[in-house]
Every structure is written in structure tokens, then in C-alpha cells.
Batch of 4 targets.
Target 1
Amino acid sequence: MTAGKLYLVPTRLDEEAPVLAALPAAVIERIHGLRDFVVEDAKSARRFLAACRHPVPLREISMTILDEHTAPREIATLLGPVREGRDLGLMSEAGLPAVADPGAALVAAAHAEGVSVVPLPGPSSILLALAASGLEGQRFRFVGYLPVRPAERRDRLRELEERSARDRETQIFIETPYRNEALLDDVLTTCRPTTRFAVASGLTGTNEHIRTATVSEWARRRAPLGKSPAVFLLLA
Amino acid sequence: MTAGKLYLVPTRLDEEAPVLAALPAAVIERIHGLRDFVVEDAKSARRFLAACRHPVPLREISMTILDEHTAPREIATLLGPVREGRDLGLMSEAGLPAVADPGAALVAAAHAEGVSVVPLPGPSSILLALAASGLEGQRFRFVGYLPVRPAERRDRLRELEERSARDRETQIFIETPYRNEALLDDVLTTCRPTTRFAVASGLTGTNEHIRTATVSEWARRRAPLGKSPAVFLLLA
């Protein structure tokens, strides 16, 4: 029996967007051939497969969960379908799996067992935000979420600004949408007036909004960021 | 007259791959509506538009060059079509423009003039490599090319390994394909045996090859990397 492959399945960045606006037709076709998935969130995975018009009824599709609560010792068992000769798809809530989510552990387990890993091309909000920001795209760093406590968050922002200046490197981070405005407050009170700051929210959706300006320009002309998921970028 | 928009146009990672395997159908349709482009390389841009079956004859399409030889003072003039009310597409040689290429300067100029920037979704070799490596995807850093001189290159590798260990962050870099083997030599002689090292080459093409292993495993079982463009990643 030949082992199956692990396909890294990209999903839409915006759940309202048509699948054909987000993914190559050949990728959608490849997804139609998969029956077994490891997903970050079952509900959004089901909505996505329905939007892809997956030819198999959803109740006949196997889905197991890999999220931040999954224990490391459970990871290898998720490769079960591959060992039984079936291809397996890994999906995160939005964008590319195994980037800014817990999926990398499954990919690492696949490499350890000699399972072929096939990354299917699709959008990444982190890289679309970077491209659209006009900030340094030849050197950049993604650091995930900032600390929740205000004092620590401001310390972290200062540290990121310093690193950006020293390495001429764009610093990229994310935040849960209801903290968008609080994060902007912190940037405006913490960062240097000349630092360039960018917010890319609602990427690829009808509410897409991208703005890059210096901290002093943001302070002078501030508009609400809204409640869409956003990517934040700074270059000192 | 309304100003045009600046579209960030993704291209294929592999020139042999069908466009429908690389880009969403809606993105290809959007490209069909553009008549003016700023491109990193005219030859590959023409091949790409032909592969997209662009409905306008190539001689009627305007292309200006933005590459590493473009002087900063020339950048703003490239936005001419936008000021005349026409949409403009920015394209790099492969993947997303304004990432790991000189395109960000044009995007920055667009923001400075209040021109809308629209990033069209498409593949990025850097992020596909990261996802497929199974290395840390919640914290990562892209540093571009390493220094050419061997001693400096090894110093840089040591520095990247140290940073990776300290920040638990995947370090990502690229190299011109004919130096792939020399770079692997340097990694094997410079990095710690337990450091995980990944090579993703020929992404999305028929020669796609992805391998993640510790430095000691690479040394024990080394296979030729080939001459395809590759992305390199390490996690100490």
C-alpha cells in the first residue's frame, strides 16, 4: 500500500468572498478529491467545503481537529488516514495552514514519518498586507500577537520599533479585532512620530481597507479601524 | 477625472505551471482589464500575460520597468497612468510583487499620493515554503539573500541560528540557484547538529521538492538540491 500525501489546503481570507476569487481552479479541483481533513475549526471548514461545492456529502467527510488545545502526543495519530493510504488535507481557519496557527506540528510529524507534503497555492493575509503596505518587503518579521496587558504591550511595541530601526526590517503583528483601536492608541502614544505604521483590514473582502502613514500622520488624521481582522505593520 | 488604482498582480512561481493552477480565476479576469503595467522583468511579464490569454495584443500594452537599477527619483513618474485615470498593475518576476523585490517603493509612492492599492491574492514562495517546512509558523523572519563571501556567509548563518534559538523564530532566506549546494555546505559545517533545516525548491512545479531534517540528518543523507529556485529555512 502506498502512503497518502499531506496536502496543505489554503482557504479564503474573507468568508463572504467567492471561492473562485480566492483560490486557483486547480486547487479547488484538488480539494474535491480529498475525503479526510485535519482542521483548526470544524464549522468554518464545513462552510468552506460547501462553498467549494465539494462533491461528497459533508457527513461522509472525516474531520479531526488540530487547534491550540491539541496535546503534542495526539499529533501523530492525526496522520492515520495517510498511513492507511489516503490523502489528507490540513486547513486552518483562514489563509495558509501551518502559518500563524498550530498546524506546523502536523507538518513536522509528516516529515518525521517521510510523508510527502504538498503545499497548495493560496492567499496569505500576512504577505498581502506586507505587499500592500509599501513597507520594506526585502526584510520582514512576523511576531504573531502582542501581549494583552497594556504595559507589556507598549514595551513590546518599543522593542519592535527598535528592532525595525536596527535591521531595517518591517515588523508584522496581529490582534483580535475588538482590540484594534486599543492597539492603535498604544502605537500612537508609544512609537516615534516618523515611524511608518500600516493597517490592512478585511483583506480581499468588500470592506478591505489599507492605510500606510507615519505615526504623526495617523495621530493627525485618525479614522476608525472597524471590527474586521487586521494585520499591523511598522517600519522605523 | 478619477484616479486609477494600483493593483498588485501576483504571477506564477513556476513558469511551466498552468496559470489556472496558480491564480484564482477572478484574478486572471482582473488582469485582463489592465492595459498598463510596471514590471520587474519585461520578458517574463510578457510570457505571463500571454499565458493569461490577455485579450489585448502585447504591443498595445504599456510596460515600464521597476528593478534594482531604478533610481528613487524615477519612482513617482511610474504612477503616470494612475494620474491619467487608468488602473496600473505591478508585477514582479515571480509571486507577489513588493515582497522580496524592489516593488515596495512604488506602493509607498502610491500611498503618499493617496492612490488606492489593491493586493490581488496569489502564491508566495516564502510562505508556501514556510507552511511546507513544518517549522515554527507563528514566529518567522525573512532576511533575503545571504552575503556572497564564504566567511561572511558563515558568520551570518551563525547569527541567524542564534536569533532563531533566542526568539524561537524560523529564519528564512534565499539564494541564487547555482549557489544552492555551496549554501548547504556552509549550513552543514556551520550550524548545530540539532538545528532543523529545510529546503523547498521548485515550488508548485513538477520538480517540487521539500525536505526538513536536522543538520545531522542532512549530513548523513545528502541528496543533490538541483538548480531550481529554492527557499531555505532554519529553526534552532
Target 2
Amino acid sequence: MDNLSARIISKIDRDRTHGASQLAIMGLEGLKSFAGSWQGDRVKEFCEELQLLIEALRIVRPSMAAIANLVERFQYQFEFLYSGTLDEVRASAIEIAEVLVQDTTDASAQTARTMAGLINDHEVLMTHSLSSLIKSVLGLVVDKSVHVVVTESRPGNEGLLLAEYLSTKAIETIYITDAQVGLWVPKADKIVIGADTILADGAVVNKAGTYLLALAAREHDIPVYVGCESYKWSKVSKDQVALEEMDPDELQMPPLDGVLARNIYFDITPAELITAWVSEQGVEREW
Amino acid sequence: MDNLSARIISKIDRDRTHGASQLAIMGLEGLKSFAGSWQGDRVKEFCEELQLLIEALRIVRPSMAAIANLVERFQYQFEFLYSGTLDEVRASAIEIAEVLVQDTTDASAQTARTMAGLINDHEVLMTHSLSSLIKSVLGLVVDKSVHVVVTESRPGNEGLLLAEYLSTKAIETIYITDAQVGLWVPKADKIVIGADTILADGAVVNKAGTYLLALAAREHDIPVYVGCESYKWSKVSKDQVALEEMDPDELQMPPLDGVLARNIYFDITPAELITAWVSEQGVEREW
């Protein structure tokens, strides 16, 4: 793999603050910048190296179906244009990536609008972690005088970034530890979460802690809405999905003999805990 | 209130690392040291000041019934000995406190032995926060080759103190964020927790996050055992109990306009999520 490809993969691999949609767009932008800056002169070589980058992007973040799905769409469309001069092939790759980025952005925007439409004036909303989609949704309901309960989302504390955003939008926000979720769910009108992947049966892969939030919500009859653009849907089942584990040093545990820190980033919320799945195609109440 | 009494109350008020049993013993020791070091010469005045300390101890940590219960036992026994010389009254107060400390210690030790008896070889145990009782239980099962999953327990990270203890005992331990609880419960054989208070209907007041652990445990049919010496039992219902809130600065959120950090320390786990209550009187499977 060439240097640029390695940098693209490494950046997505190390990222801890962006959700699946943003990293998927980062992957498409990576394909575009690879195509635009590749230094060789043979079409075959260009396609082979592009293929290596595609393969690496498909597996770099296995808990996020969006990346693999969008890269596969790129690959599918690109293979029809395999012939031609290097300039033609290069231009095609760039155009396909650009169109997919636009489609992705449009799908997110439409999903956010649909989700915002489900929120009523003065509601108390609760979320977990940082989802670019939920950020957009909350930005769209500024005039509805909602209140938002935000969790820290250890170990990365992405919840703090969301709280910072809500502060700039003058949305009244409560910031709590992940352990307090059970105390605040009964005060919420709705739970709104993003997703890294929707599994074949509708189960939701999202930041660890989402499952506990959804369990508490069911206990108190609080509806759980998941924002999940169609490019996040996967054919994979819960037994096949890889839940990424990150560096245990993120927990900042001092070294202790016989004690192992673990840092699994994602958990699975079964479909029966979800009230509705919201995508650019509308609101589904059954999967 | 005199200086010593104020120091005793302040110490218990500010403590973030000891559980209800240890703080209750600290309260009894406080009564003893007050009695031993009081400088006046009139019995009436001694009793009045002791009464002020008792009243302050009863309310200093409202989520921990153990402190009020043991202080009330002290008061009940002391009132029978209200007459006599100052030296006699002083000696009685000291003796009552000493006997109650011993009773409390004995009850905890018996509860720990009973709870340890419920644990089988090679089991995976999971707990939340730091309970002196659970620490004793785990110390008693060192020979059973158990594995323990310990949560950080934000914001105080008392789980780290438990992990340090388990390390010294060479008990294999996994240390996780509170948000990962749902990922690890299915791997556990038993959940073992302490309690700050047992409410009138058997519900458990314990460190925030316990409720989520118990919800996940029911979902996966993992039994939940609560260690609760009888001095932790309360006649208060869940609508009457005060869940203490601590300094929100413990969350270390930078100042943000419109964002309020909240730091409620305890939550309530309903009785239907508890498999058995273990005390010095034995194992109860229904409350």
C-alpha cells in the first residue's frame, strides 16, 4: 500500500471522536484524494493500488457497516469503468466518490429532518455518545425548547463534545456520568440515538452503554428512536459482527498484577428495545 | 456543636471512598471519641451536646440507613443510663459505642461468610463500586479461583481501589468502564453487590449504576445477590428516600453556558431485580 493510502487508513483507524457516517465520508474522500494524487502512469497499476485501499477501508473499522457499505458501492460502480486512459479512469473514480459523498450527506440530512419531525415542543431528550446525525437533529429543533440529557460516554468522553455543541445552540443540557443513566431515563420523553451499524435483524451496534440506556428506557416505557441512514444497514448477524476493542490505556488504569483493563467500544441493542428506525426512507416501527 | 463533633460530621460528609458500614462505624467511633474527650463538667450539658452529635449523624448521609440505624440504637440504649456522675455517663456512652461497633463488625463478618458460601469454584463474579462487605466476601473465596469483573464506578473510580485489593489477593480481575456493563454481564455467573440502604420493600439503594447492572443481569438470567446486614434495613420507601447528590465538579466538566453537570451518587434497584438478600440472619429469596 502506498504512503497516502496508509495515512488514510491510519487516520480512520485512530479516530475516536467521529461516528460511522463521518468516517465513511472520510473513506470516500480518501479514495478521491488517492485517485487525484496517484503518481504512476499505468491504468492497471492504478486500479490495483486503488483496490488495495478499498480492501483496507472495508475492514479498518469492523463495527461500522457504513464504511464498508459505501466503499462497496464505490467498487461496484467503478468496475464498470475499468477501461480507458489513466486520466479517464482517474476522473471517473473522483466523480464516483464525489457523488457518493453527496448521496451520503443528503441521506443524513433527510434522516435528520425526519427525526426532528418526531420531536415535540418542550420535550426532554436523552442520548448517548456523539452522533453527527443526532447533532444535526438537535440543531434542527432549537426552536422547540427541548432539554437534552447527555452522557459522558467514557472513556473518550465524546458526550462533552455534544454538550459543547448544545451550549453554542443555547439548548438546556444536563451532563451526567454513564452510571447515572437509570436515574435520568424516567425524566425523558424520548431517547434519540445514532448507530454505527444496523444488523440484519434490526439490532443496533452503537457506542458501549447504548444497550443499558435502551434497557432502562423499556423499563419506564420511554420510546427509543434510532437514526440509521440506509448505508448503515448490514446483512451481518449479531453472532458475526466484530465489536471493536480499543487501547485499554484509554481507561488510565495504573498497572496492576492480575488486573486487565478492557475497552470494548460498542455494544448491541436488540431490535425489541427499539421503538422506531428512522432513515432517509422514513420511519419504520418494525424491522 | 463543638469542634470535635463538627470534625466528625465533616469527615463523614466528605468521604467518597467508604461504604455505609464503614461510615456507620466511623459515626460510632465518633460518639465514643466525643464521650472520651469532652471537656465540660456537667452531665446535662454532656448529654445535650452528645444529642446534637447524634442528630447530626442521623442526617449527614441520608442515602445510608446504616448510619442513622446504628446511631439510633446508640441513642435508645444510652437513654436508659441518663443519670449518674459524669464519669459514669461518659463510661456508659463509650461502652455502648464499643459494643455496637463490635456487633456491626460481627454482623458484617457473618454476612460475608454466608455470601462467600454461595460462590462456587471458578465462577465469574461481577460487582459495581466498592463495598467493604464484597471486599471481605472476595477475600474469603481466594481459594475458589474466581474471576471478578470490576467497574470503574465514575466519578470517584472506587472500582480501582477494589481492583488494587484483588490484585494483592492474586484474584484474576477485569476492569471496565461503567458503560461496558451490558457487554460483560452475559459472561458472569453471579452479580454480587453491597448496599447503602435496603428500603421497606426490599429495593436496594447503592452506588449509581447498580440499577443498570441489575437490569442487564435479569435480561441474561444472571442472579443478583445483595449483601445487606440488618443494620442497613430501613422503613423508608422509595418515594421518601433521599438520593444524595455530590459536587458536580467531580465530573470535571469545563464551564459551559446552559449545561449543568449532575452527580447523583445513588440509584434504586427494585426488589424484583434481586435474587437474594444476604445478611447475618441468612439468605432471603423473597423480601
Target 3
Amino acid sequence: MADRREAVIDLLGALAYGELTAFERMATDSRMAPTVTDKAELARMAAAEFAHYEALVRHLKERVGVDPEVAMAPFVEVIDRFHDVTQPNDWLEGLIKAYVGDSLAADFYREVAALLDDETSAIVVEVLSDTGHAEFVVERVRAAIALDPPLAGRLALWARRLVGEALSQAQHVAAQRDALVDLLAGSTGPMGLAEVMGMFNRLTDRHSERIAALGLSG
Amino acid sequence: MADRREAVIDLLGALAYGELTAFERMATDSRMAPTVTDKAELARMAAAEFAHYEALVRHLKERVGVDPEVAMAPFVEVIDRFHDVTQPNDWLEGLIKAYVGDSLAADFYREVAALLDDETSAIVVEVLSDTGHAEFVVERVRAAIALDPPLAGRLALWARRLVGEALSQAQHVAAQRDALVDLLAGSTGPMGLAEVMGMFNRLTDRHSERIAALGLSG
């Protein structure tokens, strides 16, 4: 049970620091917006991420009884590195990063929530239910590609790179956080290797659907 | 009365774009934070600015009946320029910019609110009442100076530069926005030159008090 608690703290700590940095990076990327309205749309997404961060920190302190800074610490380097190697070069790359990153994280945490105790599961689902500020991204990216079709190829590559970097950083985490890996796929955990593979297939499928909805080739 | 309406739109448009860019720049500057807790403190200030922006945009649309993007447009260049020439070089400069900028803008708008119709005055006061997230700045800056006293001189210069740049950009605005200047100091306005001078003296005095509270040599 100690290991299980450790794994829950890891999950919430990683999610919290992920939300805080998503906030910071989206806000930074909003500077590249072509209009004030666009800037405000991405800023709104960022502000929602910060609200999630606050909810998670409150939960870690009050319900789990752990210092949020301690819970986040193991993930600071790996999440910062993800952002550093995926700095968008322009507004559209920033939009796609916000959309793909947000959605992929939400899908992953929804899958994992099913494995958790009710209280942890409830906070994770609650925090993730307030996304959906990202729909404007689909419209903006499709409009840009309609004006300049060759864009689709470059942006598709960019989306692929984002997922590749996310997986690569996730492997670093897996190599270091035994309790977390045990929770997901350990001998006492609820998922065997087949279930973990199944989960990754579902995440990848949903990612591909989103990429198609954006009008990217793939 | 047309001029008065124009001046009110200018004031709200400038405040809205100021809040949106304050959000974006504070969030960006939070990357320099030495700890996750510090990063979250500045992020919290930024998120409050975004909530102000949303309230102002709603007011412009629903009560004033003007496209917020149109209201903000005349101030985009001048406010962006202010931020571009005052990019903080480190975490402490970022904190001081957030604190000094936020407070100076709040003081200015509180002075001006007294000259406005009740409804406009109410939204301005409401938006500004939710500041005060900045108090942690005083503690952090004082602690840093206690550890390294020569810092005080450099940071005092920085604070002076911030005010100088803000005044310089304000002069650009004044040169271009006749209705606004008329509202504040025109022949039909409520303030004569003496009153305007008095207002600037009060703003400067309060700024000096804040600089002293930060432990800067002033």
C-alpha cells in the first residue's frame, strides 16, 4: 500500500507540474498570435491549466497530505526538457502543441484514473473535465491550411515530433519511478503487458483522429 | 458626449490590453523562478490579470457595445513596446516589474475612475480590487537584498527605468488620443493642469513608498 500511495503522489505530482508548465508555455506562445482575439483564446486555455494546477496542489496538500513541491520535484527536469526541445517556431506550431499536448495528457490520465481509488480518480477527472477550450485550434489550423495547403506536411511532422518527444520523456520517467510502473503494469497491478499495450494503442488512435481533424496528412 | 464615450473606450481598451499583456509577460517571466512555489506565485498573479481582462472584454461588449479588439487596437503597439524594452534579465527584475507595473497601473486607474460615470468607474474599481497577489514580491525582494546588499542599487535603477519607460509610452498615448487627454485635462474636463500635476505627484509618491518597502535605495 505504501507503493500505491507513492504511485498516486507521482501521478498527481506529474500532472500538477505538467499543468503549471502548460500554463507558462501557452501564455508565452500566445505572444505569437496574429490578433488580440487569438492571443486571448490561447491565454484562456493557459488560465484553465493554472486553475487545474491550483486544484491539484490543494488536493495534494489537504487530502493526500504531501508537500506539492516534493510531489512535483521528480518531474521538473523531464517536463522542462520536453518543453525546451519542443519550442514552437510560430503561432500554428504553438496552437498544435497546446492542442495535442493537452489532449494526449487528458487521454492518458483518464485511462489511468480508472485504476485509482475513487477520491484520486475524482480529482483527476474533475481537473480534466474543464478542458475543451482547445476547439478553436481546430478551426484556426484548418483555415491556415486551406490558405496554404503545403503547410499540412510541415505541421504533420511537427505533431509527430511532439508525440515522439513526449514518449521519449515518458520512458525516462518509467525508468526511474518503480512504484508508478508497478501501479500500471506490475505483477500486483491491474494491468498486464497486454493491457498497457492496449492503452498505448488507444492513445495513439485518438491522437491520429485528432491529427486528421486538424487536416494534417498524418 | 461623443468625445467622452471615446475617452471611456480608450481607457477600458488600454486597461484590457494592459491586463492581457501583463498576463502573458508575467507567465513568461515565471520561467525564471528559483522554485516551483515561486513560479506558481507569479503564475497566480498572471492568472488574476487574465480574469481582469475577461471582465473588461465582457463589459466592453455587453455594456459599452464596442468590439474589444477595436477598443484595444490603438494601444497594442505602445504597450508591446513598453514590454519589449523592459524585459527582465532575471527573476528579481521580473518580480519588481510585476509589482511596480501592477501597482502603478492600479493607482492610475483608481485616480481616473473618480472622473468617470458610475458604471465605468464600478468596473474599473472591481477589476482592480482583485490585486494584492503581489505582496509575496516584497518579501522575496527584501530577502534577496538581505543576502546580497549591493543588489539594492541595481534593482533600484531597474525600478526607475520601468517608471521612465512607462511615462515615455504614456506620452506617446497622450500625443495621439485627444479625447482621452480632454477627459483628463481638457477645458471641459474636470481637471485643470494643476490637478493633473497633483495626480502625477500622488502616483510618484506612492511609487516611492513601494520602492522603499522593497528595501531599494530609491
Target 4
Amino acid sequence: MKILLDGMGGDYAPEEVVKGAVRAAREIQENIAIIGPEEKIRECLEANKLSGENIEIVDATEVITNEEHPAMAVRKKKDSTIVKGMNMLKNGEADIFISGGSTGALLAGGLTILGRIKGIKRPAIAAWFPRAGKKGVTLLLDCGASVEAKSEYLYQYGIMGDIFVRGITGKIAPTVRLLNVGAEEGKGDTLHKEAFDLLKNSYLNFCGNVEARDVVYGDTDIVVMDGFSGNVYLKASEGMASAIMGLFKNKLTEGIRAKFGALLAYSKIKDIKSTFDYSDAGGAPILGLKGAVLKVHGNSRSVEIYYAIHRAVDYVKGDVTGKIKEAIEKVEADKPKATESGFDE
Amino acid sequence: MKILLDGMGGDYAPEEVVKGAVRAAREIQENIAIIGPEEKIRECLEANKLSGENIEIVDATEVITNEEHPAMAVRKKKDSTIVKGMNMLKNGEADIFISGGSTGALLAGGLTILGRIKGIKRPAIAAWFPRAGKKGVTLLLDCGASVEAKSEYLYQYGIMGDIFVRGITGKIAPTVRLLNVGAEEGKGDTLHKEAFDLLKNSYLNFCGNVEARDVVYGDTDIVVMDGFSGNVYLKASEGMASAIMGLFKNKLTEGIRAKFGALLAYSKIKDIKSTFDYSDAGGAPILGLKGAVLKVHGNSRSVEIYYAIHRAVDYVKGDVTGKIKEAIEKVEADKPKATESGFDE
């Protein structure tokens, strides 16, 4: 197996990418390749590696930034890390591509270079989300790959999520819910009512709607969301978590009394922080492409890269891409009848 | 001014409603009337009031529950607190109606009994949202009145929010942003792109898009949201805030060390709780109806009712309903050209 890393993706690249790769390389048997300006990556590698880590460098002279128009940048920058990574995946020279670069460019590159799995209408960005109180994590998708959703996309997100969770966790029939404005059947706009029906009539272990308030308290394995409100859900949760943790940090360092109190309660506060810390979640797979792409947060540090590499191994071993292909072929063969507006080609 | 209270709305009605009313009645000069089963409300009142509070009872024998179909319940239960409240508003027998009852029934009752202000396409539920670090609160709308939004609704939410914030806070040109999947112009689906253009070309102090992550960190006065993702935004934030605060509560009472630490840091932890405590926000106005309706959370205690009554006084004094009427007439007179799909009648 070869795992490709975008050496220039994210705010702390290439240093933190290299550090994460070096740490992971000591533990896994797979090959790791870092794409980026050869000299720069080599310098970083030499400063960080101990000995014997199996890390190769793939030279790429260009970088696509977040400020560029994704599709245009992918077309123009043929020697960028993202375009090069996608081409290597396409040509079978690697098994998975991990990047903290522009999500738009990863999607654009994924769609134009790799292409969608036959039958898949839209790729989806899937993200692991923490749970309060209950064990495990919840897979959310789509987190913003398609902001203009149709009911059949949502239905397919359910299928892709199911395969991904089964492939990674080994669960037999993971539970699926639909993010909606109310828990009862019949809630929401036309899009979500249609998606509800499609999911309900599928082979999935569909358990109905879930309200945004209850996702974090629940133990649903997969929450299907349209890309717009999915993006809002994820970012609202992130914003609120970071706002509250930030306030705790500020308030508990104000004055000696509070500081001393915080010191005594330190290990517990750390527990809480780690519950809502996304670093061990290991990146967000872009599902539905003809190749495995793992997007990590733009502000990832070496620890996130390290975990993402571990997840990537599971992802490839679970043959998620191949299994999505099989599942969608089967679904297409005996497709349930749906209202016209929910479908497009 | 007469302020009407739904004596049977919410999980802790009528006791907590009555308590909140009694507390507020000692401070304000306005008349307060509580709608509900006369005997029950009277008992509560007698158990709680001290002396001289100016509180009247309006008898209503029925209650609409959250489990009922809103429109059907409003049609059938003519003697329910919600239907009675709306009729009193309509007949000029009261100036504002505060209820912790079913949001769906309040909307259905508002639409069928009061009706929309001429020119307003859809009413909007507006909610005050806390800010981390910056002073003041942010008005979010729509939080779920219309889950099937069109761009012109969003544009009108901006107008209604502007009038409400000016009426309540006295700010001259409150800032308006649009909740979207990215901060840059051109982000989002067709709905949000169209709404962006309408808001940008309006008289409002429109400052562009805002991502869900940044709402709580910002100091925007009004954030315009489509009802579906607005509902998701609000509930995601609530869920995450309550999950983290709950974890802190649990963790900091685990073991003597942490307990003692928490005790020392108590006042600071209380500060944080109060920042994200919605109780003093004072309810969510339903804007766009021909009458002032203030929805309070179903789990409101007397303190929420008390604050809502204070807000209600400002709401009526600010003549928000009258001013929305004027503004929308003016806007209709010189309506900006918009794409066809964004409009409907």
C-alpha cells in the first residue's frame, strides 16, 4: 500500500505534515510518499526523521491556495501537489491521498481527474463527530461537497456512509438518521421529506430524523445531511465548542483563586477538552470518487496527520471505494421509484 | 399596554408562568393578563402573589399540545389559550402575546387569525444569540418558521431584523450578514447567491456572508438565515453548548480534588454559564404578523418569563409591527429587480 501526503496542504505545512508522517512511519508497514517541492520536503525530513522511516518524496513545484478558484487552479497548475496526487491515484501509483489543502480544489481535482464512481450523483465530504456521554463517534455526511442537494444525493450519502462505517468499524448494520428540523416523520422541506422516504425504503438501518440539538447526545452511526445545512451544522458545533473552551481557558486563568481551582481540576478539564477535540478523528474522507481521498483540517498539526495516516490504512484495507462501487451498482439495478424532482443525471 | 401570557404554554406552566408574571408585575406599569383555565390560574396566582400586582385572568378551557397537528388544532380548539390570545391581539384587546406553547400552533394561529403584514411573504422566528468575547447579542432569523425558503423571504428577514434591532436597541444602522457556507461573495447555493444580491442592493447595512463557525465570535447585529439551516444552526449550537456544560458539571463533581477545584473556580464557571445561558434573552419574536407574538422556550422557568415580559414592553413601545408595515410598503414601492425564481405570491 502507498499512502500519499500533500506536503504543502494546510497552515502548518510542510513541517507538521512531515512530522506526522515520520511518527506514523515508525508504526506502520506501508509506504508513505510526500508530494511537494523536493528540496523543501527533504530539509524538513532530515530535520525530523530518526532513521529508517520509509518515506519517499514526490516532487511538485506548485501549490493551490485557498484563495484560488478551485476548478481553474486545478486546470492550470498541473504540477501542483493536489493535481499530482490525484493523477497518481488515477494511475494506480498510490492507494490514498491525504491533504489539508483547499477543499474546493480537492473536490474539483477529484471530480475532473479521478471522476465519480459510476452511478454516484455527487461526492460527499464525511466527517467524524464526537459524542457526549455515549461511546464511539458519529459519521456526518455531506459536510459541504454539494451545497445544492437533491433527495437522491442524500439517499446515496446514506449508502456511502453505511459502507464506510462498516468498512472502518466492522459494525454489521450501522444506524442511519437524517438531519432535519424535527424528529417526527413528515418534518422539513420537500428535499428532506423525499430523502426520508428514499432512506426509509432502502436496505439501510434507517432510524428516522434527528434534530441538530440531539446529534451530539445520540449514538447514531451515520447522520445524513444536505451539504448546506451539514456545513452549517458542523461549523456551528465547532464554533460553539471552541467559544466555550476558550472562555473556560480565559476565565480559569483570571485571578489566583480560579487558577488554583483550575489546577486542581486540571485532569478533568483535559478529559473534556479531549472529548471535543477532533484531532484523533483522522480526517474527512471524500466519498464517491474513483479513488480514496482524505481531507484533513487546514489547521492540522502533526498529531492530526499522524491519526489520518492510521485511518487511511483502515480506509484502504476496508476497500471502501470498491465496496461503494458494488453497492451502487446493486442499488441502481433495483432502484426504488422516487418522485421526479429528486433525481437528475 | 396590555401584555398577554399563555398560562398553559411550556413544560412548567402554569406555575412558572405565573411566578414570572408576578415578579414582572411588581416592576412594570403595564397590564398583564394570563390566559388559561380560570380556577387553575387563580390558585397559582394566589399561591404566588404578594399584593397589588396588576394581573388579570382570561379564561380558556383548552390547551394545544406539541403533539397535535398545529393547523388542525388551531381550527378545532377555539377555546385554547393560543387561539384566544391571537383573537385578543386581532381585536385590539391586547398588545402582545407571550407563549411557551407549540411553535407550530403559534405560527398557524398567527397566520390564520392575525395574518401576515401586507407585502410580507413569510413570518420569521427571530432569536437572540450570545457572543463570545464581544459585547451585545446577535439577532438570528429565520430560526425555522419557513423551512422552504426563497431568496425574497431572506431579503425580507433582513428588513424585519433591521427594524426589530433598531426598535429594541436604538442602534442606527445595525449590521446584517447572511449565514452561508463561506465568507466570500459567490458562495452557497442559488438561494443564498440570490439572497446575497438582494441584501447587497438594499438600504440595509449589509456586510456580506458569515460562516456558521464565526457567528458566535462576531459582532454582527443581525444574521439572516433560511429557516432550515437557521434551525440547524441554532439547535447545533444549543446542543454543543449544553453537551460541554454538562460534561463540565459531571467531570468537576468527580472526585474530591476536582470538586474542590471547581469550588474555587465557581464564580468564573458561573460567568461562563451565564454567557451561554439564554434565559435573559427574553424570547423569540415571530416577525411579519399583524400583531406582536413572542415565543419563549418550552422549558422556560419563571426567570425566562420575567425577562420576556420586559422585552415585550420594549417590543410594543418600539412599535416594531407598525414599522415593519411601513418599511415593507416602501420597499414594495421601489422593489429591486430580482431573478424570477426568488419570488412568489
